[in-house]
Recover the amino acids of this structure.
């Protein structure tokens, strides 16, 4: 049995994201990309030595990677328990192929450095050549699991 019904889940999402968010929510986020689930084994920051414990994801450390920027107003209203960005997030120019497949994203407050949320990408992302950075549409849902 869910701990919150869908309407409560949507109110909770809207409290943190989008134009109706509470005052404590950041005005923008860094959108960081990972090669696995960052929640398994803890989030690792890109500017530290890469550690692969085989358990979780590591933020991309590759050829021109830098986080994308998302204005917190750029979310659609929750629908069916899910929020999506109003447009894809654009990442900076890529200098060369990225060695790992990107599978997850996470939101970081650029002012405090605190992590807010993460989720898998709808489709894994392979960057195979230099050129314009990838674009990613984010989907966020309320995790109703108790474990």
């Amino acid at each position: 049995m869910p701990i919150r019904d869908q309407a409560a889940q949507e109110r909770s999402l809207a409290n943190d994201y989008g134009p109706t968010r509470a005052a404590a929510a950041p005005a923008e986020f860094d959108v960081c990309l990972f090669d696995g689930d960052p929640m398994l084994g803890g989030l690792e920051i890109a500017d530290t030595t890469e550690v692969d414990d085989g358990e979780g994801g590591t933020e991309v450390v590759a050829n021109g990677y830098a986080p994308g920027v998302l204005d917190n107003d750029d979310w659609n209203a929750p629908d069916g328990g899910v929020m999506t960005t109003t447009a894809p997030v654009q990442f900076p120019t890529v200098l060369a192929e990225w060695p790992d497949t990107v599978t997850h994203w996470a939101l970081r407050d650029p002012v405090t450095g605190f992590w807010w949320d993460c989720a898998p990408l709808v489709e894994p992302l392979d960057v195979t050549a230099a050129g314009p950075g990838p674009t990613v549409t984010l989907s966020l849902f309320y995790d109703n699991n108790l474990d």
Remarks:
- The chain is about 5% helix and 25% strand.
